[in-house]
Amino acid sequence: MPVISFATSKGGAGKTTSAIILGTELAEGTDVIVIDADPAKRLTRWSTLSQLPPRISVVTSGGERNIQDEIAQAQSKATFVLIDLEGSASRLTSFAIAESDLVIIPSGEEQQDADAAIETLAEIAMEGRARRRTIPAAILFARTSAAVKSKLEKHIHAELRKAGHVFETELHRRTAFSSLHNAGGGLRQLDPADVNGIDKAIINAQDFTSEVIDMLEGSRNAAIA
Ligand SMILES: Nc1ncnc2c1ncn2[C@@H]1O[C@H](COP(=O)(O)OP(=O)(O)OP(=O)(O)O)[C@@H](O)[C@H]1O
Ligand SMILES: [Mg+2]
Known about the structure:
This is Chromosome partitioning protein ParA. 48% of the residues lie in helices and 16% in strands.
């Protein structure tokens, strides 16, 4: 059962939010366990705000000594295991990356995000070398504006496309996405009276989810070939 981690050394890039979006979207159709492996426990906090959708549950990691067992146990119970990581390199982060079938690296459109994404790609490659396998990784533009890109933003996109695989879908900066941290639950549980643009946010989340599934299938086929 696939393990998908969210990693980047840039704080606030969108790891936790993107994990919540993917987790709740996948849980529309199957069982999902999200492991909160960030000592700041923001994803655990989200899970306590309201009743979670039925097919998603959250495990708060007990740290680097426990993470491997936590992943194995989650894999035996759920179809997808997602791991929200902290923003700095640690043994816990390395263990989680080593167990991952896909590492998603959220990035904004500023140079600092791009530098952190490239550094994170290098860490994943090193981890892969140590484990003698290629660990699939992809950059996800998050918190981006839906407007036409500036020259700097185009430059950042080109730089990251040269560095690694980039998701075609961007998770735009949307109130519906940031509201999840207040309301808890998934996009479908948000109240349209309180939050604008839920429908567009759901379509955006679905596009992202489909691309993740295609990517996992693509890397599985590559491994078989
Ligand atoms: N696509 C988005 N649209 C709107 N707001 C977003 C989006 N992604 C993230 N945010 C907001 O940006 C802030 C930081 O996001 P998030 O907590 O997901 O980042 P992170 O990478 O997990 O940070 P940390 O490194 O501190 O764990 C949050 O307040 C969140 O609501
Ligand atoms: Mg986080």
